[in-house]
Amino acid sequence: MRLLVVEDNRNLVSNLFEFFEPRGHQLDAAPDGIVGLHLASTHDYDAIILDWMLPRLDGCELLRRLRAGGIDTPVIMLTARDELPDKIAGFRAGADDYLTKPFALPELEVRLEALQARIHGRHKRRILQVHDLRLDLDTLEATRGGVLLHLYPACRKLLATLMQASPAAVTRGQLEYALWGEDPPDHDMLRSHVYELRRSVDGPFADKLIHTLPRVGYRIAAPRQE
User: Fold this and answer.
1) Which pairing describes strands 217-220 and 75-79: parallel, antiparallel, or unpaired?
2) What digits encode the pLDDT tens for the residues 58-103?
3) Fewest C-beta in 10 Å: which of 40, 69, 121, 188?
4) Residue 113 DSSP code
5) Cα gap 62→53, rounded to integer Å
6) Which of 80, 98, 35, 29 is nearest to 62 (CA)?
7) Which alpha helices (DSSP H) does the chain contain, by range?
8) Residue 53 contacts by C-beta under 8 Å, 6 or more apart in sequence?
9) Beta carbons within 8 Å of 101's beta carbon, 6+ residues apart
10) What b-and-e string marks burial along 186-201, b requiring 16 or more CB atoms within 10 Å of the CB?
């Protein structure tokens, strides 16, 4: 599994890495909620291990923003808050599981495995298609005309956002939120990501699917809709 650990306790993060990496798992770590939100929004993870009490943005608010942005990565909350109202708040924010501190690392691993089994068992394969462009939301494989497209994580997120809205327009603000939440970079990184996406999706093909709407944003539409 590829895991994101959003936790400000360095000792706990170190323990998680020492336990999970020898078992073949890949881990990224974020020391606060803002960094965690950015990583979770722009990278693909099998699950997120999320602390509640975080600097800059607490775990529940981070989780609410992820779910509002359409990111359904499974989340296990780790927290010392073990009262029933706290657990209810965590689940209502969008948590898939809840583990109170202190906890045993093997239990966390088993919970992650069980969560993966449930998620993959209940989800039907989700395919987005516009013209000859296809995106599998489960495998994150994008193809056009049967040709595999090699996309950076940010470009995949942009592509999914545009295809889910197709043929409607998606504003620049909506695309920036999909990538960075409420903390977009000061410079115009969106333009660079759209340029890279266009190179992959439209560059080798005669029919252009990605369209710029001046002063509005972008959309993906089949040629017959132009």
Assistant:
1) unpaired
2) 999 999 999 988 888 999 998 888 888 888 988 999 999 999 988 9
3) 121
4) H
5) 11
6) 35
7) 10-20, 33-42, 59-68, 84-93, 105-122, 153-165, 172-180, 189-201
8) 8, 59, 79, 80, 81
9) 78, 79, 80
10) eeeebeebbebbbebb
Least confident of 38-52, 80-94, 109-123, 136-150: 109-123
Q: What is the assigned CATH class of domain 2-122? A: alpha beta
Asked whether the predicted pLDDT for residue 124 surpasses 80, the reply is: no
8 Å CB contact between 38 and 180: yes
Domain ranges of the chain: 2-122, 127-225
Tell me the CATH architecture of domain 127-225: Orthogonal Bundle (1.10)
What value does the CA radius of gyration of the chain take, rounded to a whole number of Å? 19
What's the predicted TM-score (pTM) here? Answer: 0.54
Q: Is the peptide bond before 102 cis (omega within 30 degrees of 0)?
A: yes
Q: What is the pLDDT of residue 64?
A: 93
What letters, b where the CB count within 10 A reaches 16 and e where it falls short, cover 106-125? eebeebbeebeeebeeeeee
